[in-house]
Structure formats: structure tokens, C-alpha cells
Amino acid sequence: METHRITVHRSDENLAKEDQLAWKIAQLAADRAAVDDEVADMVVNRVIDNAAVAAASLVRAAPAAARAQALAHPISIGGAGSTVFGAPRRASVEWAAWANGVAVRELDFHDTFLAAEYSHPGDNIPPVVAVAQHAAARGLTGLDVIRGIATGYEVQIDLARAISLHAHKIDHVAHLGPSAAAAIGSLLGLDADTIYQAVGQALHTTTATRQSRKGAISSWKAYAPALAGKVAVEAIDRAMRGQTSPTPIWEGEDGVIAWLLDGPDAAYDVALPAPGDAKRAILDSFTKEHSAEYQAQAWIDLARKLHNEYPLLFDDPERIESIVLKTSHHTHYVIGSGANDPQKYSPDASRETLDHSVPYIFTVALQDGGWDHSTSYSPERAHRPDTVALWQKVTTVEDPEWTRRYHSLDPAEQAFGGAIEVKFTDGSTIAEAIAVADAHPYGAKPFAREDYIRKFRTLAADALEGSEIDRFLDVAQRLPELTADELGELNIVARYGYLAQASVPDGLF
């Protein structure tokens, strides 16, 4: 890895292109370093993971609306178009990336990386696959798809390690726009100059506030990363046509760092692979066993453990005086009681809000001994009187040691859980702790290929025929060997009549 110091420059300093972060990223994307077998194997896992969570969301309102929008946009004349999850026909490439991005993100159930910033790097996959299908006649193969996805993960994760967005209330998709543009450029084998312009355009148009993840969280939470992917496709198209971007986009005196992040005196150290080095950042990311915000994953596992070990202690909320989760700054202030969002304690809250309420999630997992992507969020489940009573007794506090471990750069020390103290009305207590989720690479049962396959089969069982499940798994696992003609098979088609249960009001298109 090579570390690049990024600072703000006045316009009259004329910062050379070669010294700009967007150029460094473009060089990385244009570099044709060999893809490690281990990386290729993990890309396959994440392609399966994305399809799994998309299948489970097909008839939910946001993915259904996005799919209707996409299918209203026919294939453009420049290529073959792209498949849309659930549908048997193709759409225009940028709109297919949009629809598939929404389907993937809807349940908040795919992979994650957390550092200075947090991210879902699997959001890079929909735009890469969409462009690969549309432009397959250029001679693209499954290996090119893997190369593009590996680049997207590398760029987004490297930016997330170095540059905090949420500290300035900027949504984390501001790292996704540039990473998706770099990923598509890598897929297509574009030169660094073209990718440089696309990266700048994608960043410029994907900076938005974090209000989409605050208060009463709306369906836009699923759309935000899909928009970044769609914008990246469009940025690549413009850059290929010779159109330019604002520069220097990060370092300019009126640029992102000076006015949206740490200000004109800021300095960031961004480490990127050196020329010729493999892009391996995907191996540092981790997926979810449970459909909930990543910082809640370990708490679900701990709740499941407590439920199994103390089956009689938690059946009556009146026995419990308080449950305190001692955790990191991020968990406390984003999905914990430190957010000061009353919606996080409301049984009338949206699914998107409950997904970002660790008090609710822990309560339900503790009572049920597990977590379901659908029933755990149902209005009936949220309104159960004993759940509401116990839920109000669960709070979070920041613990400096858990915050330190959250930000540790040592993967073996980094932690996303915390310690729990349960106080009962009779004066007795229970104290436990968990550092990482069971499915984490350092957890009790790290996810492997068979786990991704099981997750796909489970989540796709209602939406897809068994033969379609088998077909997709075969194609996905052959990704490194796929020919251009086979790229269109990287799609899932719903069983006959399944999509009809989604009611989609008419829109403009």
C-alpha cells in the first residue's frame, strides 16, 4: 500500500492532476494487476449474498417501485441493456443498476465495512454487473466483472478507512459514487484519464446529508446507494464522451474537504494499493447473518445466547429493572439511545427505523432467541405488550474502550459489540460481553461459501422456483469462467405471478 497525504489547495496553486486523490484512484482502477484467487472466491460469495437479499425484498414497496421505474426505460441503442432482479426482461443499463441497487439494500442485509466511515461495499456490485451485461459485446467476461467488483470494494473501503463522512453529517454514499465509477472503469478497461473524470463527477453528484438515516427513517435509505450506482454509470458515459469534472474535487478550495468535511486546514492520509499490487480489501469486509444494522449483529447473537442459557429469566419484563448495553460511540449515537430519536422506542416506527434501533432489536432477539428478516419487524411483533415494556428498559451508553476497539486498525482487536449488564428487581445481575458477531471472520462461526448458499436458498425460497435457485447458484459459482454471452444469466427471475402481489401506484414514467 502507498499512503497519499490529501490536503486542501487554493486555486492559484494549480494542484497537478497527478497529485489529486481522484487521479490516484483512477490509476488504481486502470491498473490490471492480477486478481487473487481468494479475492475472486469472495466476490462470488458476495454476488450470491446480494442476490439472496434482493430475492427476499422483491415485493416490498421500494424495490417494486424501483423495478417499475427501470422497466419503463427500454434498452438504449448503445448495448444489450441489463437484467432487472425478479423480471424476465431487460431495461436501460443505468435504470437496471438503480432497481437492483434498491433491491439489494432494502433489507439492510448484505455486507459491511466499518472504520472512520461505514459502508456497504456490496452496493458496488449492481452497477458493475449492469454495465457488464449491457456492454458484453465489448468482449467482457466474468473475470472482468470480478476485477471491477474488486476495484469497487478496494476504493470504497480505502476511503472509509481514512475519511469520516458521518462526523460532518454527510451520508456514506459519498464514498460509493467514486468507488462505483472506478469499478465500472476497471470493468471496461478504460484509461486513467477517463476514469479520473468519472470519479470526480460521481463524487460531485453523490454528496448528501445523513438525514436519510436520522429520525423517522424513510424508504429513501434503500434508494440512496442505488442513486450513487446510477450516477456512476452516467458519469462513466459522460467521461467516455470526453466530458470533464470539477477539479480538484476533493482538494479544491471550494471542494468536498474544504466545505463538507474537515475544512481548509484538513489533512487525510489515504492508503491505496501500489501499482501492480492486488486489490484485496474485500477480504476485510464482512457480511450479515441477520437483517439489521451491522452494529446490531453481535447484540442479536448475544441475545440469542442469553435466551438459550436463561430461558426463564426474560419471560416477564416486570422481573427486569434495566438492561444497559455498554458499547462504542457509533453504536450508542447512531442506533442506540444516544441518538435521542424517540422513534427508536416507538412500536409505530417504520421498519427502516426499527432496523436502526438496537434497543428494539436486542429486546426481540432476547425474547425470541433469534431474528427473522420479516416477522421480527412486523407491526404485530413491535406492538406486543411484553416487548414494548421490556424495550423501554433497554438503553445504551458509550464505553471508551469499546469505542477504541471499534476504531482499531488491527482486525483481531476491532470490535462491534460491547458488554451488557442486566439488573433484576430482586437485586441480582447478569454481565456478559461480545466483541464481534458470530458470522464475522473472527467470530464464533465465520461465514463460508456454504453459509452464503444457505442464506440464498432460505431468502429466495418464496420468490424463486427451486430450479431457478439452482440455476443461479451454478452461474454465480462459475463467475470466474463466464463468457460474455453468459453474463446475462447473472440475474434472478421470480416464480410466475409472484411479483403481482406488489402493488405499485402509477408514477410519471
Automatic annotation (TrEMBL):
Tell me, what's a Pfam family for it? Answer: MmgE_PrpD_N
User: MmgE/PrpD N-terminal domain: from which residue to which, for each copy?
Assistant: 20-267
MmgE/PrpD C-terminal domain: residues covered: 290-478
The record ties this protein, via InterPro entries, to: MmgE/PrpD_sf, MmgE/PrpD_sf_1, MmgE/PrpD_sf_2, MmgE_PrpD, MmgE_PrpD_C, MmgE_PrpD_N
Kindly give the SUPFAM superfamilies that the UniProt entry links to this protein. Answer: 2-methylcitrate dehydratase PrpD
* Membrane-spanning residues: none
- Provide the family line: Belongs to the PrpD family.
Q: What is this protein called?
A: MmgE/PrpD family protein
- Source organism of the structure: Gryllotalpicola reticulitermitis
- Phylogenetic placement of the source organism: Bacteria, Bacillati, Actinomycetota, Actinomycetes, Micrococcales
